[in-house]
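Researcher: Next entry: 16S rRNA (cytosine(967)-C(5))-methyltransferase (Geomonas limicola).
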Amino acid sequence: MSTKNPRRAAFDILLRIEKERSFADILIDHELSKDLIKGADRGLLTELVYGVLRRQATLDHIVGQFSKQRPEKLELYVRLLLRLGIYQAFFLDRVPVSAAVNETVNLAKELAPRAAGFINAVLRSADRGRDGIRYPDPAEQPVQYLAARYSHPQWLVAQWLEQLGLEDAEALATAMAEPPPFTIRANTLRIGRDGLLERLGRDGIGGTPTTWSPDGIRLNHSGAVTRLAPFAEGLFTVQDESSQLAPLFLTPRKGERVLDACAAPGGKTTQIAQLMENAGEIYACDVNQRKLRMIRETCDRLGIDIVRTFTMDASTPSNAIREVKFDRILVDAPCSGLGVIRRNPEGKWWKQPGDLQQLAVTQFAILENLAEYLKVGGTLLYATCSTSVMENEAVVDRFLVRHPEFEAEDLRPLFPQFASLFTERGYFRSWPHRDGMDGFFAARLKKVE
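Model: Predicted structure:
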């Protein structure tokens, strides 16, 4: 069986993402499953795709310094080849610049032969002139500076500046352009965190305990952990640390009835079951039937049998739970995902500010609908993986105005061990550059009458 050039494979994937808005992780997994790319080249393919997507605006900015034609005016094939070449030459230490240029030019001769000379000239000029590359002045043009230097959409950078100020926004922009940590959660129904660390160590997998989550482990590598024996044995599942904190703030108890709305892929569902010691009832719903199968498969692997899955649009009443009242409800609302763009970097180039407004409408509708299913005295946790105020505090504020039977609980006195993660209003808000985990928000609401 012949092998495949990882650079060509990366180009093909990047082209599909541009043309079809396909997701990088799915395309990479599909390509690697063919087993035509071997050894270290498998890691190179992944690095090239994610690196180009994360650094796209910076790569185009560099190209613009050495090309007479603006990057956005270049043919798509030429633009993608230049991004691949510049990324290797400027951001991959293990690839010699000569190899980065030569391999890209060879690829250009195959894919865009008329532009091969132009691509060669731009790449070599960029290498010679790398010390003279200019960026906008951060004092005079902070939005343009952060967007070009750290490769994020200008509208998003403007939000971060408004929320954090220049110094913090630059630290966040830096973190959001880097690969994310790879974190798992011990299945405490079968093993404790220390026991799992020891077991992984015996299998040659290194890791360290997470700072905030009592059951989390940050692994030293992000290889195919689903192929590990401890995964098959149901000793852990993959879940970011910020996501692991939401069920803790919900505080589900043994024997209670809990609704996990918008539950897929099931990380929080199964964690709630762990906190309930696999005793009680969990209703896990999602609009996507295929994703519900993922939840059931994860529950089976982890040995959890208190979860009932069903299809439901959480924004409208459902006959499936019409007569049911819940002790606790988790609303992990569909959102922009701005807090996880380092995991899904292609998404940051697809989003627009108007999307947040439409998402906020849906999020409010979900809260309004599910409020009816909560018992008096019950707890609802509203959570998103977005950094946007419009999707978080603004949605909660609007809901509280419309629903005086609910009040927001201050998380600070309830969870003093997490004090530095809470806002002045007592909401949970994590930032990648400060807290070493994904951007996440949670507000705890109590039904008081």
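Model: Note for the record: The chain has four domains: 6-131, 143-177, 183-238, 241-447.
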